[in-house]
Each structure stands twice: as structure tokens, then as C-alpha cells.
Amino acid sequence: MKTSTPIYRLKQTARRKARGEGIPLHAALDRIAVEEGYRNWGHLSRRQSDGRTVTALYRALAPGDLVISAARPGQGKTLLALALAVEAMKAGNPACFFSLDYTRADVADRFGALKIDPDAFDDRFVFDGSEMISAGHIIARMGDASPGTFAVIDYLQLLDQRRENPDLMTQIRDLRRFARARQITFVCISQIDRSYDPARQPFPALSDIRLPNPLDLELFDKACFLNGGEIRFEAIAGSEAI
Questions:
Q1: How far is the C-alpha of 135 from the C-alpha of 137, rounded, in Å?
Q2: 131 exposed, middle or buried (CB, 10 Å; 0-12, 13-18, 19+)?
Q3: Of 70, 86, 146, 236, which sees the most CB atoms within 10 A?
């Protein structure tokens, strides 16, 4: 489905709407997207993309990377993670999706938005929606995973919600060691603190990651931030060595 006018003009219209009505830019972008027949701006942007952004992003990841992907709600974090999983499977690698938030039906719906039939990848895609998900659970489940496997964790802030689980810092350290040793790429979806204002800052930063419990973000190798249908990808300077 094509937009009624080029995306850059839609963005201009959204900026005028934001200024004229005194609303945040992201809200204006979402309104414009709905008028064009999309769920929100992230949905519009992804559907207008030719796929090269996701392909380039996947190629920028390396086996053993621990990646944090963060954005405000409705910006397409989960859809991007699944699109990256699709890229991994197209390359012949297995992909896993561990979620404490989504159901199997939710994931099927997101694959539908990507126009992907997960059955086309045979047994290369694994979904785990267990309430017991933690680093220990993930490591045990992926005990025989081959190098190059791509795994998504949805989402970071829920890993230590059960009292019997280790603290978040310990879990991420364990995942990092496992990722390095087995050459598995992990993408951890993350929430952004409510104080982040997209009108003042085009993309979130590491300092905007919502951390209800202590976590050294330099345990991650790379970061991916989304806002308004656009992506900012960066290496994390000073990423902690093991």
C-alpha cells in the first residue's frame, strides 16, 4: 500500500500538526499514519521500507553479540526483532523468541504483518512463552544451539520479576558469557523511561533505558534505538570485556 504523498512530506505535515496543536511529534506522526490507513507511524515506515534497513542491520551483527533494542511503546521493537530473526533464518540459521509478554498468537500476528509464513522455515523457529523465562531457562533451552543462532528476549525488564530468579545484572552477565562461548546473537528488547521526550531528543539513549533494578549497560555490545519509524544503531563504547 502506497502513501498519498512521499514520507518526507508526511513528516513535514506531522511537524506542523505537532506545533499547531501543541502535541508531541510522535503523536502527530501516529495520527498521520492512521489517516494513511496504518496502525501507527512505525507500521507505516516498516511497510514502506524495501527491507534493506533490516538486512543491513542484521549484517552489522556478529555471532556472540549481546544487543539491546529499545524504544517507546508502539515504535516497532518487537516487529524489528522478528524481522531480524527472519533474516537469520533466511541465512540458514535457527531463531528463537523468548517472551514474557507475547503469546504464540501475538507472534503469528507479527509474522503476518511482515508477510512471513513461519512454517516456511520448517523447524528453524522456536517460540517459548514460559512464565519461567530467565537467563538460566534460556541457557538450558539453548544448550544444543548451533553457532549463528539468533535469539530474541522480550523483554529485558521482566527477566528478574520472579523472586527466585537471580538479579538482572547476574542474568545478563550469564547470557553474555553464554553468547560468547556458543557464538549466539541475543537481542534483548527493552522499555524506555517515561521521562524520555522525543520532541527534545530524536532517539533514546542508553541513559533513557528503564532500569527498575541495577544493570551495567556496558555488558551489551551494541544498541538499537527506534523512534518515528527510524532506527539508530551503534556500538556501545567501553563494552565490558569478559
A1: 5
A2: exposed
A3: 70
